[in-house]
Write a structure and sequence with these properties.
Keywords: Membrane, Transmembrane, Transmembrane helix. With 181 residues, this protein is mainly α. The protein has 6 helices and no strands. The protein has a domain of 79 residues. Helix 3 runs antiparallel to helix 4. The radius of gyration is 37 Å and the shape is elongated.
Length: 181
């Protein structure tokens, strides 16, 4: 069956479709170009799918490693807490013995001084923990969602929160000038 889109000297000689005949004054036909583009697209899609599968496998392996590491890290944090607490107790006992024996304080005064020191360290620890837990509230993400209208606050509350966030950011970065950026 003859191709009506092919006319010229090559169509009379039997329609030679070799690359040599295409390079002699004529480019490839639209069908050939379409096939090449389609094949290249399929190869690109196949490569993208293979890359996605490889990344998925990497992500699964990475999560498995992180899960295992998290368990081990929690174990060692527990060990550190136990030994840290016991060493703190021994240190406080030594402080009490020093205050009572060397300085002549009463047992009650020595234990109150050790307890006071422990409470100060505890208060600093709680203050720092609350400071860092504040970073887990995702302020930047919430602010962007509010600006997109996806938040649960009205305009007045939004402006108040934005001003507070700007103040927190300025104080955190040491630029507390009283103005929101």
């Amino acid at each position: 069956m003859s191709d009506p889109s092919r006319s010229g000297p090559d169509s009379a000689s039997g329609g030679d479709d070799s690359p040599d005949s295409a390079g002699q004054g004529r480019g490839p036909s639209i069908e050939d170009s379409y096939r090449e583009i389609r094949d290249a697209g399929r190869e690109g899609l196949s490569a993208a799918i293979d890359t996605g599968r490889a990344l998925r496998g990497l992500l699964i392996a990475d999560f498995a490693l992180a899960r295992s590491a998290l368990g081990r890290a929690l174990l060692w944090v527990s060990v550190a807490i136990v030994f840290g607490a016991s060493s703190w107790l021994l240190l406080m006992a030594a402080l009490i013995a020093l205050l009572q024996g060397v300085l002549g304080w009463s047992w009650l005064a020595s234990m109150l001084a050790a307890s006071g020191l422990s409470l100060v360290v505890t208060a600093v620890g709680v203050w720092q923990a609350l400071h860092y837990f504040e970073f887990t509230r995702l302020h930047a993400t919430r602010r962007q969602l509010r600006r997109l209208g996806m938040g649960d606050l009205d305009d007045e509350e939004l402006q108040a929160h934005l001003a507070a966030d700007a103040g927190h950011a300025a104080r955190y970065h040491g630029k507390d000038d009283g103005k929101a950026p």
